[in-house]
Amino acid sequence: MAKSWATPGVDLHLEPTGPRVRRGLTDALREAVRTGRLSPGTRLPSSRALAADLGIARNTVADAYADLVAEGWLTARQGSGTRVAARVPTPSAQWGSTAVPPTGIAPHPRPRSRPAYDLLPGVPDLSSFPRAEWLKAARRALAAAPNEAFDYGDPRGRVELRSALAGYLARARGVRADPGRILVCAGISHGLQILGAMLRARGASTVAVESYGLDVHWRLLAGTGLRTVPLPFDERGTDPGQLTDQGAVLLTPAHQFPMGGTLHRDRRAAVVDWARRTGGLVVEDDYDGEFRYDRQPVGALQGLDPDHVVYAGTASKSLAPGLRLAWLVLPPGLVEEAARAKGGKDMCGALDQLTLAEFLNSGAYDRHVRAARLRYRRRRDALVAELARRAPQVHATGIAAGLHVVLRLPPGTEQATLRAASWQDLAVHGLHRYRHPDAPADPLDALVVGYGTPPDHAWSGALEALCAALPEADGEGSTGSPSPGP
Amino acid sequence: MAKSWATPGVDLHLEPTGPRVRRGLTDALREAVRTGRLSPGTRLPSSRALAADLGIARNTVADAYADLVAEGWLTARQGSGTRVAARVPTPSAQWGSTAVPPTGIAPHPRPRSRPAYDLLPGVPDLSSFPRAEWLKAARRALAAAPNEAFDYGDPRGRVELRSALAGYLARARGVRADPGRILVCAGISHGLQILGAMLRARGASTVAVESYGLDVHWRLLAGTGLRTVPLPFDERGTDPGQLTDQGAVLLTPAHQFPMGGTLHRDRRAAVVDWARRTGGLVVEDDYDGEFRYDRQPVGALQGLDPDHVVYAGTASKSLAPGLRLAWLVLPPGLVEEAARAKGGKDMCGALDQLTLAEFLNSGAYDRHVRAARLRYRRRRDALVAELARRAPQVHATGIAAGLHVVLRLPPGTEQATLRAASWQDLAVHGLHRYRHPDAPADPLDALVVGYGTPPDHAWSGALEALCAALPEADGEGSTGSPSPGP
Hints:
The structure is a homodimer of 486-residue chains.
Chain A: H1 21-34, H2 47-54, H3 58-71, E1 74-77, E2 81-84, E3 117-118, H4 131-144, H5 159-173, E4 182-185, H6 188-201, E5 206-210, H7 215-223, E6 227-231, E7 233-234, E8 237-238, E9 248-251, H8 265-278, E10 281-285, E11 309-314, E12 326-329, H9 335-341, H10 350-361, H11 364-390, E13 395-397, E14 404-408, H12 414-423, E15 426-427, E16 429-430, E17 446-450, H13 456-469
Parallel strand pairs in A: 3-15, 5-6, 5-9, 9-10, 10-11
Antiparallel strand pairs in A: 1-2, 4-12, 7-8, 11-12, 13-14, 14-17, 16-17
Helix pairs in contact in A: 1-3, 2-3, 4-10, 5-10, 6-7, 6-9, 12-13
């Protein structure tokens, strides 16, 4: 084996053999890092050089490097090549650490994708979870809880939480709610499973959805036996004109996910008209209604017609997904059916429910949301400003609200941009994955950039990595692979 | 209306009319109590006297009284007649109280069955939930939690909890577990829903169950499309001889619910043989394996063959149902399927999971279980002694373990005994409700008496009420109605 390494004198002693060369190479490299034979910071040969050395295809080496970057064993930076990560996953660091380390790779029980920079949408800044305030609320809730709170509970959830939510949702989102019509559930996904089962039991076979949305929601509905049929999408949002005899329509009216717009008022009215005319159900996914920056929040669609709209909200964006707390506000006639579809039992821990009730009633929730809104707004502003400066060719949309923006890309460049992002050790999603397979319009190329996720200390680095990955003005993606060694 | 009331000078001003006389009487009485027109402690006329006054059947009055006792508006004591409850449900007392009041009716958002004495099985003493210890564990767990604990989690649940459980279950229950094969779920019911969906996806159509068990479990399995087929039951427990091509069998080997016995060792072996021979799955519901009093706990059946037995355990009996935390230990090949059947997401709050992990690891769980075991054992002893003294004709079985006993009754007396219990303001279940409708043997008459539920201060009163309700030695139930006024 020739010794044309970037770090002179280091021989990797790799002998990948057999038909599955990429797998063999990946395993051998991982083992070398794991055992410390390749120490942190060591620069690896370029993929071209190693491929030549080993007599295998360059792509095979590049793929193996990419796998190991994704797993956290290696890092890749434009201009500094591929190196052994400063902190690699170790079994002894499975838990107990209180924070993601300032740079590098977060320890994790099993090596898996944990890139240096994370701009995936859908998750808030987990490092800003209000631990001290939450514990305070938990202490008060635990002291005040009646003994029966520890019993099997009302399938709708704790009445304390439902009462607190009814007040909050009326005030903050214009939802017409009373505690008797609220069903606490373990995330909006769980709520959709419940609604899907209920719709199936009523004989529905299809649910209209938006052209762009969460595939996990479509799969959950399919799992309950419902076919999802996408509605057309244009600059005024999702077009309800094609709603006919579907049992329900699932919408994100306040902040379309992921496109970011608000459903036009004519269309809000048209959706409610359809529901009244046909007896269909409107399901309003208000996943991040708390976060609107440039004007007053858009009130919930449910306020227009609480008898035909199910409102779905969640603590996953405003606090943390790990709480597994969300809520449905149901039309009066559906409460019993939904409780049955939920299995007739409460499935969320009573103490977390009581704590969230206390958190809402004490004002801690409002304070947390206000602080988070300010922080996310600053990030949004920094992102938009940086893009205007460094990538003026990229158009950002959906910036008025939420925790993500959509960056429209020149046609045909989404895949290349995602590859470039991967080489920046940046996790980000393309728009294609959010497009319903049966959506009527042609696919658009774009990035869906979540700016809630990075902890504050990692935000500027993430922004830097994003700008470096964006295509040039001429529309060609910068598909940077690690530069070869000197 | 004549004025032959027990409390002279009080006229109830009731004029029940129309065909639904009982309903009308119940509503009128409830309204009179609710508005305060009948004040707390007021003694009502005997059912005989009121029936004569109103010109309606005595049973109608007795039934209306019983309904209102069950709802908490009235109380009934042998020898002191029927009275307006000392504390009646009021909307303003919906929550915030920290304990069930020492006597009388617990406040509740809507009037529903909340009798003075509760000997229903299936719920531990909720007043002994270790609030201070739990809060301590929560504080430590929250301080040590990595940020990613607040993210969407592994569908199997938090690795910290699964690791703590693997150690605990091996030590305390002889379960062969590793964290990778544990699935945290929101109660054993949730676990059965997951297993049911998995079995259906594998093409199973029937599940064998025990002749006596929880109807809610049979309904959950039916809800996933599985037919439940009961196996014969005799003094050695459930007979697995009739197992053939069922997809699975659901058993309570350590402590049959509700009969209370232990599955005979030959039958344990036969069940595992069946599973190996046919590829069927054994589901071991170990709902209260921690509580055995007179000898060493019976080890889990799962220890015999972890590749064919799913072990299901729960915190519902050892701590509290309100935590909504239970766990499945799965054969290696079923983990992915079960995680998919669960919906691919964790549904239990991360903080409760981390807190329970801390609770287990710190030894607080063992301490709590030891103290609870001692307390329940004392209650068991007091119950058995009191029965021997006051109702020697009643045979108690299943006393070696758990939180309930079965009191065998003379044939044909179960219904009368339950009515007598209701007049004692005592909630208790008959055995009939736990018998599978297709069970091969004739129904037995018995009471299923849970002694975990009452808080300590209510225990002797509950015991007193139970003994008063039991049938006389001649086999006739003491169907006491409130004695007429003086």
